[in-house]
Amino acid sequence: MITRLRDRLWASRLPHDFGLCEDYDLTEWLSKATEGLCVEARERIETEVRRHIAETAAELEAEGMSAVEAFDAALRQLGSAKVARRGFVRTNLTQAEYELLMKHTASRPDPAKAHRSELLLGFAILYELWALRFFLGPVLRSGENIEWESLLFAQSVVAMFLAVYLDCRFRACGARRKVIGTRLFSCIAWSMALPYYFKHGLAFSEKSEGLLLTGFAVLVGILWGLVRFGALWWKLGRVSIPATPEN
User: Fold this and answer.
1) Helices 67-77 and 39-62, interaxial angle, to 10°?
2) Contact predicate 40/242, CB 8 Å
3) Which of residues 111 and 129 earns the better pLDDT score?
4) Between 156 and 49, whose confidence is greater?
5) What is the spatial distance between Cα 229 and Cα 232, in angstroms, rounded to a whole number?
6) Axis crossing angle, helix 2-13 with helix 39-62, rounded to the nearest 10
7) Which residue has the higher pLDDT, 243 or 5?
8) What pLDDT was estimated at residue 98?
9) pTM, entire model
10) Residues near 12 by Cβ (< 8 Å), separated by ≥ 6?
């Protein structure tokens, strides 16, 4: 209903003798150029393009063109819809990206979870101090070789607790890009534990084949998370974020 009213509004600003064929061409161009974008981006781009077409057609008509010729010339100036879509995708959220963003940032943390996250932060600080003393102490005292896998595992635990704390803080203040950054940080934290898993977990288990497959499955999941959240985090620094969830 809203779309029809908006179309009528912009149609009233176009020359009156535009036919259905010309309007269909513009609608088809918009459909191809905004395919896959989120609803907010599609509506905003459609409004801007229709305004641009109306202004350009009015200028050309003032130069002596007929209304239909001016509209066709303005439409041709838009260029290829496929080329325009590539530009729109770079500067706007796709529907998949929008859904991923809303899934992880739409809700606010409850007070109880926020309180637990603060306790986790305190535990992370204490655990970090213990880990540094436990792993680096012998190295500094007697020059023993450090177990890098175990140290990385300890750092991964600290990073996971820190990610939970930061997630609650950023969601509470509505910093959506920072929330996605914590998801990216969590993937990195999980990846830090993998060397310990492959070296020690497989060595002390008789069912090494199953654990190996599990380890590679976790690795694939981490890489997929890095790609999804990394790309979204990078893009959120360059696009406008819809202010409210879409219906």
Assistant:
1) 130
2) yes
3) 129
4) 49
5) 5
6) 20
7) 243
8) 92
9) 0.70
10) none
Contact 67, 17 (CB under 8 A): yes
Tokens of residue 130, six digits: 């213990």
Mean pLDDT (the chain) is 77
> How many residues comprise the chain?
247
**Percent residues over pLDDT 70 in the chain:** 71
Per-residue tokens: 135? 């792993």
Tokens 């590679």 belong to 216
For residue range 82-124, what is the model confidence (pLDDT) as tens digits? 999 999 999 899 999 999 888 888 777 666 666 666 777 777 7
Give residue for tokens 């981006």.
41
**What gap in Å lies between CA 175 and CA 161, rounded to an integer?**
19
pLDDT score recorded for residue 139:
57
Q: What gap in Å lies between CA 216 and CA 185, rounded to an integer? A: 20
Which amino acid is residue 73, in one-letter code? A
- Alpha helices in the chain, H assignment, sequence order: 2-13, 20-33, 39-62, 67-77, 81-91, 95-105, 111-142, 148-172, 176-196, 208-236
Specify the amino acid at residue 59.
Answer: E
Q: Which long-range contacts (CB under 8 A, 24 or more apart) does 102-109 make?
A: 102/245, 102/246, 104/179, 104/180, 104/183, 105/171, 105/174, 105/176, 105/179, 105/180, 106/245, 107/171, 108/171, 108/172, 109/167, 109/168, 109/171, 109/172
**Residue given tokens 């992370």 in the structure block:** 124
Q: DSSP string of 140-178?
A: HHH-PPP-HHHHHHHHHHHHHHHHHHHHHHHHHTT-HHH
Look up residue 203 and give its DSSP letter.
Answer: T
